[in-house]
Amino acid sequence: QVQLVESGGGLVQTGGSLRLSCTISGPTSNIDNMGWFRQAPGEEREFVGRIRWDAGYTTIPDSMKGRFTISRDSTKKLVYLQMDRLQIRDTGVYYCAASRKFTPTESYKWWGQGTQVTVSS
Question: What is the rounded distance in angstroms from the CA atom of residue 104 to the CA atom of residue 41?
Answer without folding.
Answer: 32
